[in-house]
Amino acid sequence: MILIVDDKPENIFSLKTILELHSFPTDTALSGEEALKKILRQSYALIILDVQMPGMDGFEVAEAIGGYSKARDIPIIFLSAANTDKKFITKGYTSGGSDYITKPVDPDILLLKVKTFYRLYEQNSELNRIQASLRSEIEFRKKVEDELQERARELHSILESIPQIAFTTRADGKIEFVNEQWLRYAPSKQEFPYTHPDDPDLDRQWQKTVASGHALEMEVRVRTEPDEYRFHLLRAIPIHEGDTMLKWVGTFTDIEDQKQAVKKKDQFISIASHELKTPLTTIKAYVQLLDRDIGEEDPTKLYVDRALVQIRKLDNLIVDLLDLSKIESGKLKFNKKLFEFESTLSNAVEMIRQTYPEYRIVRMGKADIQLYGDETRIEQVIINYLTNAVKYSPDNKEIHVEAAVRPDGRLFVLVRDFGIGIKKDHQSNIFSKFYRVEETANRFQGLGIGLYICAEIIRRHEGEFGVESEPGRGSAFYFSVPVLQGPALQAATA
Ligand code: ADP
Q: How are the residues of the chain apportioned to helix, strand and coil, as percentages rounded to the nearest 5?
């Protein structure tokens, strides 16, 4: 918008007409005082200012405008009829004018000057806008950088205070910080600690991790003395802000002592179960002999039977422990061949029916197939699922057993009970070694290894397993294994 200031309305009218004809928006003021008031309220691209006016003259108005920070940069063109001598013109410029036009106004010259100043004004405002946005961008970046540095300082002091070997890297994996511990085991700040020559190469592993963008968790043996290696758990996680990955934070935690303790425990379980097995087998044989010899009417028969039940329980426990040690040492052997799955399942169900006659076991579906696998081990899984179903549903004595060959050619087996159920957050753990649901562990006896063994057996048959459960409503344990046929079966049996 252009402001025309003149005390004569006819002058204003002619200037306004010329400018508006050329699409310049205009505003007008009939005195210097009115012009100043308008300038304070609104911003203008250009002011055309008459010099001779009653009250404030044009020069005084220009000087006053120069005092307003908001309006200081608006170009001013003076209009004057009379004084064209040099002194007068100089005064116009020193009071803040940008140009000078004498009356009578030549419309072409006026338009040329207005266009030039208008364009200059526009360019100037654009430059100012860009400058302002650049300034705020720079300030914003500086603030973010300061915050990041502050956070990095905090993170580094935390990593300095922990006993682990710790480091951070940039998003591209280049190490940027290592704590004091690092320097005790690594050749330099830029290189990973020395690890056992038989362990995977850490540099290569790290490159793979960075490329994948996923957290890393692995065990490595870190050289802690010239000829001593200790197991460490290396964990590294990517740190994100929104969608951008900022850095990686990693630690090496010494787990050698835990490893040794686990090894000793495994050794103990292995030795103890072996040592217990032999005398128990002898006891079992003698009690079975006794049971056979004793008459049905004999009052001690009841005690012998009870002893046999307990011996069987003990025997199962020891067998489980032996299986556990075999899994740990990689010695769990499988004797795979083709067998009639339906009869194995029926036998298992029948056995549970006889042992727990108070339970109603409902069979659903049929799987009349020949399965390639270890029959005893598959039966072991089914019996385990069934005995758990019995054990964990003391108040609802119905159990469903489903078996089917699915359209994808896999055998699917499911054991459903209506017992105590399992909370969601425990469900992913119950197939782990020694895991028992804490809230119910005291009510039900057990070691927490049955499902672990089942999981291993199913895995070794290239199968899948899982549980669906709702607390208070029951659980459904299932597994599925491929039913090999044709060339796949020939290849497996060859
Ligand atoms: P154990 O029964 O000897 O504790 P398992 O490995 O067979 O060991 O089972 C692990 C845990 O899973 C059990 O301690 C129990 O908490 C839970 N669990 C297994 N089966 C069921 C089931 N049918 N219903 C509810 N909880 C179950």
A: 50, 25, 30
